[in-house]
Amino acid sequence: MRDAGNSPARDPRRSGVGTWIDHHLYSFAASLGRFLRRPWSTVLTVGVMAVALALPLGLWLVLGNLARFSGDVQQSRQLSVFLKPAVDGARAQALAVELRGRNDIGKVELRTPEQGLEQLRASGFGDAIAAVGANPLPSLLIVTPKGDEALLATSLQALPEADIVQHDALWRQRLDGWLRFGGRVALVLAALLGLGALLVVGNTVRLDIQSRREEIGVLQHLGATDGFIRRPFLYLGAWYGLAAGALAIGLLTLAAIALRAPLAELASSYGSRFMLAGFTLPVAAAVVAGATALGWLGAGVVTGHFLRQTRPTDT
């Protein structure tokens, strides 16, 4: 039998770190077991949390697609500059080149009177065009601004070659205002429903704590630290949050798939190729991570409150 005095010296700090890691691994596995042990209760809790998370996320997704759609529909920002009838094709082409060199203009497209006439014929106005006789259409410049449409419209209207400048800045301003309002509503809903999800997971963990009150009391009297007691419940809350976040992403993805085809058909009727976009992988991962952190936080608040109430006192 080896003499204890000749045994290799142990590093207490290394032993403490190893114990801490072992307990984390044990808490991770044990909390997963408790999470799966009561499937009906787990499904109800996760379902409520998922719906609470899906509502603001769904609104945020709709607003993102609406903003992308308004950006894709360039007519909402483009300015139509109808040149005077006296401006010939060569001058119209030169003017388009000059405008492309300006810093406040992103793109300039020139449509000649002949191109405009062909477009009208393709739209079904061939008989009306034939009755008119000579081509009455002027040259048209379609200008896509980089900045403020109103300022650019005023500048273009001052050009000597310009006859009429058309743009719908008021529609754009109203749309931007509604998008900002919708974004604020999404933030308020996220805060309220996120608080609701935190309370749901907190109440679920509280019930689990109550069922293990005697076990926790024994650990406290044996000198277990609050962190040691709290750890399994933190992981349990994290499991609830992770499952709820993943379910919320799954529900919204299924909803996007169900709506994608009819929305694409509707957009095509307006000459647009808009497609409903779902969550990207980084965004989905961020949502799941945030939901996991929310579950961890809810469990931490409830467990900390319980431990403060039941901490043994010296007599």
UniProtKB/TrEMBL annotation:
It is found in: Cell inner membrane. InterPro entries: ABC3_permease_C, FtsX, FtsX_ECD, FtsX_proteobact-type. It is a multi-pass membrane protein. It comes from the Bacteria. Residues 78-151 form the FtsX extracellular domain. The chain crosses the membrane at residues 43-63, 185-205, 233-259, 279-302. Gene3D superfamilies: 3.30.70.3040. Keywords: Cell cycle, Cell division, Cell inner membrane, Cell membrane, Membrane, Transmembrane, Transmembrane helix. Residues 188-291 form the ABC3 transporter permease C-terminal domain. Part of the ABC transporter FtsEX involved in cellular division. Belongs to the ABC-4 integral membrane protein family. FtsX subfamily. Forms a membrane-associated complex with FtsE. This is Cell division protein FtsX. It comes from Cognatiluteimonas sedimenti. The lineage of its organism: Bacteria, Pseudomonadati, Pseudomonadota, Gammaproteobacteria, Lysobacterales. The gene is ftsX.
